[in-house]
TrEMBL record:
InterPro entries: Asp_de-COase-like_dom_sf, MoPterin_dinucl-bd_dom, Mopterin_OxRdtase, Mopterin_OxRdtase_4Fe-4S_dom, Prok_Mopterin_Oxidored, YoaE_C
Domain 4Fe-4S Mo/W bis-MGD-type intervals: 1-57
Protein name in the entry: Molybdopterin oxidoreductase family protein
Organism of origin: Thermus thermamylovorans
GO molecular function, one term: molybdopterin cofactor binding
Family: Belongs to the prokaryotic molybdopterin-containing oxidoreductase family.
Keyword Metal-binding: yes
Amino acid sequence: MKARATCPLDCPDACSLLLTLEGGRLVRVEGDPAHPFTRGYACAKTYRYPERVKARLLYPLRRVGRKGEGRFERISWEEALDGIAERLKAILDAHGGEAVLPYHYAGTMGLVENQHPLAFFRAIGASELLETICSSAGSAAWEMTYGPRLAPDPEEIPENVRYLLLWGINSLSTNSHLTPFLKAARRRGAKVVHIDPYENLTSRFADEHLKLRPGTDAALAYALAHVLFREGLVDRAYLEEAATGVEAFQEEAEGWTPRRASALTGVPEEAIERLARELGEAKRVFLRVGYGMTRHPGGGNALRAVILLPALLGAWRHPGCGAMLSTSGAFPLNKRFLGGRHLLEGEHPHEGYFRPNPRVRRVNMNELASALTALDPPIRALFVFNSNPLVVAPNTGRVKEGLLREDLLTVVLEQVMTETARYADYLLPATLFYEHPDLYTSYGHYYLSWNEPLAEPEGKARPNTWVFRELARRLGLKEPTLYWEAEAVARSLLDVDHPYLEGISLERLKREGFAKLRLPKPFLPFAQGPVRFSPPPEVIPTEPLPDYPLILLTPPAHRFLNTTYGNVRELVEAEGGEPRLLIHPLDAEARGVTDGALVHIRSPWGQVVRKAKLTEAPVPGTVVLEGTWWEGWTPDGKGINHLTSERLTDLGGGSTFHSTPVEVEPLRLA
Ligand SMILES: Nc1nc2c(c(=O)[nH]1)N[C@H]1C(S)=C(S)[C@@H](COP(=O)(O)OP(=O)(O)OC[C@H]3O[C@@H](n4cnc5c(=O)[nH]c(N)nc54)[C@H](O)[C@@H]3O)O[C@H]1N2
Ligand SMILES: Nc1nc2c(c(=O)[nH]1)N[C@H]1C(S)=C(S)[C@@H](COP(=O)(O)OP(=O)(O)OC[C@H]3O[C@@H](n4cnc5c(=O)[nH]c(N)nc54)[C@H](O)[C@@H]3O)O[C@H]1N2
Ligand code: SF4
Ligand SMILES: [Mo]
């Protein structure tokens, strides 16, 4: 049987896939030629989805060994759910809801399986997890500047754009279905420029690559603005109509001469002058920004400075032009009851075992290490789903310390035996995207989609929402939205009167699989603004430390999606079999590091061992480790986040994964 389903992964492309199933098992994945953004191809990763789940979890398990040892016994769902409910009730009775923490992120982007489990936690007044590990600094910066997260329609790029600026994003790896639109614009004469601290696939695709020092983007943006103002290349009419706060911004930009910015950013003065003039002349500019530049202490301000550039040019007046961070703000869904958000409003009378607390304790997910080891009163029950925190969260050393706590009840819902799953007291098998229904939006295009289950769950796997419904029953919770099944959640989400959703019903999505939002054509989201230049963005450079003079970047690998696919041997081998530290020959020579040698990488928070690869790809002073590899593939069995810190961004409480000060030295064998 061959049928359509949306790729559930945390990727802007939200591809439509054609799946071939034999006896309920997935054997083949193809891209859907009928989907205008997918255009008939999947990515190097998802073609391998069948291999990814060959060793999937099929039965509920209970720990029999020590914490983290990974020894389990098979039990029934009744035993698992009764056992968890009993321990949970005891914790709730003695310590209240705030002793419970859900830890979840975007293993699946389906709104039902991603968000609706939270209804359970909100109904028991659990500590609320702030979803900050990825996009919150970017979102905060965007909202401050433009408001809703809208972007040009990528399908309008080819015919309209003259200049493509890819800034802090390795889009050929992380947004690969944008590439055909970039290529089509280039065929019509558009130039492609990439701005990134190290050379990667996207730099090699671009006509020009400007290498800047990490965390210095705001200075570069100001210098570009400086030249645009000086040369009279800004669109004054647009700014008068659409923008506020331009004067103070201009004053700030006047202080950032290309010479001054060059000294900080490492980008040659003449390259700054040239880029500014080219942008000013082209006007029809499409700027694709990623989250890369936001993962720094000053990341929010950096992104604000950069996304103001298309406004200076009046680019938003032209179809396909302006800036793209995310398209997610265009989906006008009614999220009030999704994941029981209304319970946080605290205005609903409640029956049942526990009452929601509108002033619940909030835990920033970047601070999991502290939450598990230093929070008072402590977290006593941790529920992990859609996430692999042992590997992806900062400061792994302390995260592990927390997971090792004998008094912590850890429940993990997973598809495969991740390194986090090994620390579970109860490990519950989750369904795959073609086994459960769900509604999908996107953050890279404007199609909404629905997955109908294509197969019965294999073994005893169950959707996340099923598990939390069962636990809610056992706790005697009465809140009705807890018991909504996927279709009820989807109907509530689509229950909105908005022109973009005109003609899009659940019935139609079930029939057709996907549907494009009814956007105005052309789509010019900020042609009349509002654009807020004030307060002028601050320049907050990422600083090394005296004993840690290099900055470590840890951007995504081409063939993994965060840690998903990190267990697929073919993909691991294609990524080189193990992670390698990219280090510039100048930095290597100064430390006696040779190509292929093992090195210690030390930060104030931990140390790991990696093989070094000498390459001129990174700007000197910056070292790069691509990919959040599973610990098992590394020389010392330690994941990259042993090095990173819980430090938060200036805006949005985001993660600072690309700002770690480190020192590198050859491994001295004892
Ligand atoms: N193949 C693949 N695709 C993915 C993912 C994956 O793991 N693999 N992850 C998915 C997810 S969860 C997300 S959030 C997105 C990733 O979204 P992004 O974070 O946008 O990831 P990248 O596209 O790699 O962009 C990061 C780039 O920013 C650069 N960078 C780091 N610091 C700075 C800086 O200070 N200034 C500038 N200008 N650049 C900087 C890095 O060198 C890197 O090239 O991709 C999604 N798609
Ligand atoms: N050093 C460093 N660390 C990083 C990053 C970085 O660039 N550098 N990137 C950060 C970013 S951008 C992000 S978004 C986070 C990502 O962090 P996570 O969201 O934790 O992403 P994954 O590592 O892909 O883990 C997702 C897990 O969810 C599981 N899963 C998938 N579908 C389901 C389901 O339906 N039910 C259940 N129960 N489980 C499911 C998968 O099997 C997988 O193990 O990592 C962050 N960590
Ligand atoms: S991971 Fe991204 S590019 Fe790959 S199939 Fe899924 S949505 Fe498409
Ligand atoms: Mo992410």
